[in-house]
Write a structure and sequence with these properties.
This protein is of the alpha+beta class. It contains seven helices and 14 strands.
Length: 300
């Protein structure tokens, strides 16, 4: 069959075709979790048995939906723990899991001022010092201590044996540190899904503040007022990316790269922070813009 041209159906202009194609593409992308939004996002979440919490925004909800398959198992794997923790309360924005590598230790505290308290960590299975020797037998679940001096009344021996399966989830909320109420919600959520052998102790994330200071060197033809405005905007966007994240380092080279991305900047010499702030599962870095001075370069 051959279709003849008709005045009733004029050809679409190229711009109209592109606009229509864009609408179709955008509509199709809503079926992908990463690009979706309310209300379609909520239907996608229900398909994975992951319903939106009260007050939960699209960004956090998307993250939980993507983690939802991890929740089909118990909360043993790290991502499964993360899914259940984020599902405990809508104010939780991030969490990180730490499994401490701790050793047993023995402490002797004497009432005699002549004998200083001694704490010895058992890196292997034996401890030896001038007051006692100790051996650990994990198969017999015993610690045997042999004293080299007689104890006096009031002397104390403390044996510390860390739990072999201790799990510490650090919890970060929209306002920063997690309240005791939030930590109790996390404990209750994990109680029914954690492996029976895991000893879970939820703790609040720690907030560590820092500031960005330094000297911006302007190109010779740069408009200082415009550069100042754009540098502030770039640094504020950089700092904003840390607010909801744990295990994220503050790298000086990334700060320099952020400032150098602004048109009109020739160089940037930061004075603060002085060193890299290492990523940690327990720390959320919160930064401010400190004193930024501007000089015009003579080397260009």
């Amino acid at each position: 069959m051959v279709f003849q041209k008709s005045s009733f159906f004029p050809p679409l202009e190229t711009s109209s075709v592109y606009a229509l194609q864009t609408k179709f593409n955008n509509a199709a992308k809503l079926n992908l979790v990463e690009y979706s939004r309310y209300p379609i996002l909520d239907f996608l979440g229900k398909q994975k048995n992951c319903e939106r919490l009260e007050g939960e925004g699209d960004e956090k909800y998307i993250n939980r939906i993507l983690l939802a398959p991890e929740g089909y198992s118990v909360a043993g794997p790290e991502l499964a723990y993360l899914y259940y923790i984020l599902s405990a309360d809508s104010t939780i924005v991030d969490a990180a899991i730490e499994v401490p590598d701790e050793n047993a230790s023995v402490v002797i505290a004497s009432v005699s001022e002549a004998i200083q308290p001694i704490e010895t960590e058992c890196i292997t299975n034996t401890i030896e010092n001038n007051l006692f020797s100790a051996s650990m037998d994990y198969e017999k679940e015993e610690i045997e201590i042999t004293l080299k001096e007689a104890l006096q009344a009031g002397d104390k021996i403390t044996v510390r044996i860390p739990h072999p399966y201790k799990v510490i989830p650090y919890v970060l909320t929209q306002t920063g540190e997690a309240s005791e109420e939030i930590l109790q919600k996390v404990s209750k959520t994990l109680e029914g899904v954690r492996p029976l052998t895991d000893y879970v102790i939820p703790k609040s994330a720690e907030i560590q503040n820092f500031e960005i200071s330094g000297t911006v060197y302007l190109k010779q033809n740069a408009e200082e007022t415009i550069v100042k405005k754009e540098v502030n905007e770039a640094l504020n966007a950089f700092l904003e990316s840390f607010k909801g994240s744990l295990k994220k380092a503050v790298v000086i080279n990334q700060i320099i790269k952020t400032v150098l991305s602004v048109d009109g900047v020739y160089d940037f010499k930061p004075s603060s922070p002085e060193t890299i702030l290492e990523a940690s599962p327990k720390i959320n870095y919160r930064g401010i813009i400190g004193e930024i001075t501007y000089e015009r370069t003579t080397n260009e």
